[in-house]
Design a protein that fits this description.
- The chain is mainly α.
- It has one domain: CDP-alcohol phosphotransferase transmembrane (TM) domain (Four Helix Bundle (Hemerythrin (Met), subunit A)), CATH 1.20.120.1760.
- It has helices spanning about 5-25, 30-55, 60-90, 110-125, 135-150, 155, 165-170, 170-185, 205-220, 225-245, and strands at about 130, 190.
- It has a two-stranded antiparallel sheet with strand order 1-2.
- The longest helix is centred in the first third of the chain and has 30 residues, at about 60-90.
Length: about 240
């Protein structure tokens, strides 16, 4: 029991370490590897809670540690990736009148709202089997994946993503993106999770559809499909929320 009770917290710490490594890769402008570190952190984040439940060693300190680790991996790390990308690709002044050299610092608003979302999640008893607002791992993976599309083309595929570059280097678009993602994390929008209570089709339709579509997209577009999968998850959640209303 002595060693067993430390396993979930050790996995959580590996999540935090992955987030720290992602920040280091971001500082060196290795965006593909930074995104990989975030994916690894997301895997650790999935298994720390599962291991705590399977081993029956859940604890208050584990819950607090999990939130702290998540804010590094899914808050600070994606904000750092976006900050470094914009710092090296935005001219100091744009025709829009917004100083390009100031815009990158607004990226850290994502980290602040990620912390706020995690704090709300810890206190919200409604989010046991689904989510209220965009989960921080989804925000982090979306942000990191979009930037990583411009890095290591030989790994991501032979897709020409230059058509997207004007959007991700526009101060207006970036500020709108940060504002939208920050709002989505703390809003009251219901979003489904991929936790299965059973494997029946009825009641699990959105989960099966998302998983099947994700596998198909990954087979066709490989890792370049990841941003589209996250956007599909958000879109499906919005549609389901409006259908219920």
């Amino acid at each position: 029991m002595g060693i067993k009770k430390h396993i979930p917290n050790t996995i959580t710490c590996l999540n935090l370490i992955s987030g720290g490594i992602a920040c280091v890769f971001a500082f060196h402008q290795l965006y593909f590897y930074a995104s990989l570190a975030i994916y690894v952190g997301a895997i650790f984040d999935f298994f720390d809670g599962m291991s705590a439940r399977l081993l029956k060693v859940s604890s208050p300190i584990g819950k607090e540690l999990d939130s702290l680790a998540d804010d590094i991996t899914f808050g600070l790390a994606p904000a750092t990736i976006l900050f470094m990308w914009l710092s090296t690709h935005l001219p100091c002044y744009e025709g829009s009148g917004i100083p390009g050299c100031v815009v990158p610092y607004f990226c850290f608003v994502l980290a602040a709202f990620a912390a706020l979302r995690l704090a709300k999640f810890n206190l919200d008893t409604r989010q046991t089997s689904s989510f209220i607002g965009l989960p921080t791992p989804a925000m982090s993976i979306l942000t990191a994946s979009i930037i990583a599309l411009f890095d290591a083309d030989h790994i991501w595929g032979t897709y020409d993503m230059e058509w997207l570059r004007p959007a991700v280097t526009s101060p207006i678009v970036v500020l709108a993106y940060v504002a939208l993602l920050s709002w989505l994390m703390v809003c009251e929008l219901p979003m489904f999770s991929l936790k299965f209570k059973n494997l029946k089709w009825q009641g699990n339709e959105p989960k099966f559809i998302l998983l099947a579509t994700s596998v198909l997209m990954l087979c066709i577009f490989h890792l370049a499909a990841i941003p589209a999968i996250i956007l599909l998850f958000i879109a499906m959640s919005v549609v389901l929320a409006f259908k219920k209303k």
